[in-house]
Design a protein that fits this description.
This protein has 17 helices and 8 strands. By secondary structure, it is an alpha/beta fold.
């Protein structure tokens, strides 16, 4: 419900001179960036949660020399998520993760200078405190939702406590990836890059909460990695980083590379297009050469695991997977369909984007 409907004098636009209405696009851009950022963070965490479950099933099915407590092992597989920063973005992100992934409240923690301001979130069972090193030492994924001016000091605080396997996901747009890598002395870093046009489509909704907005099919489709609608586009290098982050997560759990490929196929290609149902041969499957050059694949013959990938390099340079993604429109269609269905929304066949025409530039 729009509580301000019909109450023009209480709306944000009231009192702004008509010649300055042009600048209202900045409000739409802020809204669009907030929704897209939360949507992609939720998608990332959904994937990691599903991947950890698949890894647990794979490793539990292996023959073991000694018995172990399966319930304890399953408990350890739960994704632990930390957020540094309790401002508007941090609070919106926390609510989205709790309700849309969903992350259990005991698996989400927030470190902020003013934990007392997060009373509503604490009532949901989320621990809120001010101890950045403790947070990153505990978490599998850490979201940076702080101000650019705060980031250098935060990085100094946390770099000694960061585990190699912890994925740092930065929303601090003013700090580029090479600088982030240097500040944290850490390579497992993801940072989405967004491009905005001035004439944004007014589809983002002025008063909906982020969680409600991401249940709107029109808004959700605008957040798809290959979508240009809404005037905010995501660099596809983020999608590449997400794949390599998934491979690193498998390597951290000692998953054999042959099993990793099987898990990636289950995780990303479980949703099939109508064309694949008619012709199974047209359905893509991942191979070693999709992620590493052929010369390295030959040298990997006697090694059972993938190497550890530098996610900052993946997002800054062309990779074998860059060519794989750009060359296969069928794979792009699969990922678009899978993205929407991960939020519980099926993309109608007639509305599937022609990604070969609409792919945003990297």
């Amino acid at each position: 419900m729009d509580l301000l409907e019909g109450l023009e004098s209480l709306k944000f636009e009231y009192g702004i001179p008509e010649e300055e209405h042009y600048w209202l696009y900045l409000q739409r851009r802020y809204r669009g960036l907030m929704i897209e950022g939360c949507a992609h963070a939720v998608f990332f965490c959904k994937l990691l949660c599903n991947l950890r479950e698949l890894i647990h099933e794979t490793q539990y099915s292996r023959p073991r020399a000694v018995s172990f407590d399966a319930s304890v092992s399953a408990q350890n597989e739960k994704l632990k998520v930390g957020i540094i920063g309790g401002g508007h973005l941090g609070k919106q992100l926390a609510c989205a993760l709790l309700r849309l992934v969903p992350i259990p409240a005991e698996s989400l923690r927030i470190s902020t200078r003013r934990p007392e301001a997060l009373g509503e979130i604490q009532k949901l069972g989320v621990q809120c405190f001010y101890d950045n090193p403790s947070l990153v030492n505990w978490a599998n994924v850490v979201f940076l939702c702080c101000l650019p001016s705060q980031l250098p000091n935060i990085c100094l605080e946390i770099q000694a406590s960061l585990e190699k396997t912890c994925t740092v996901y930065s929303f601090v747009s003013a700090i580029p990836l090479p600088r982030l890598k240097t500040l944290m002395n850490h390579t497992n870093v993801l940072r989405p890059y967004y491009h905005c046009v001035q004439d944004l489509d007014n589809i983002w909704g002025a008063n909906k909460e982020i969680v409600a907005a991401l249940q709107d099919p029109v808004i959700l489709q605008a957040t798809c990695p290959y979508s240009n609608s809404g005037g905010v586009t995501l660099s596809i290098k983020w999608l590449e980083g997400l794949f390599y982050a998934a491979i690193n997560a498998c390597t951290a759990r000692n998953v054999f590379r042959s099993e990793v490929l099987q898990l990636l196929n289950k995780l990303f290609l479980s949703v099939h297009l109508e064309s694949c149902e008619k012709d199974n041969a047209s359905c893509p499957t991942f191979q070693l050469s999709d992620f590493m050059n052929k010369a390295y694949v030959k040298n990997l013959f006697h090694k059972r695991f993938f190497p550890w990938f530098d996610l900052t390099a993946v997002q800054l340079k062309e990779t074998p997977f860059s060519r794989c993604l750009s060359a296969s429109t069928v794979l792009q269609d699969h990922l678009t369909q899978m993205y929407c269905e991960s939020f519980g929304i099926s993309l109608p066949k007639e509305k599937q984007p022609d990604v070969s025409m609409n792919s945003p530039s990297q």
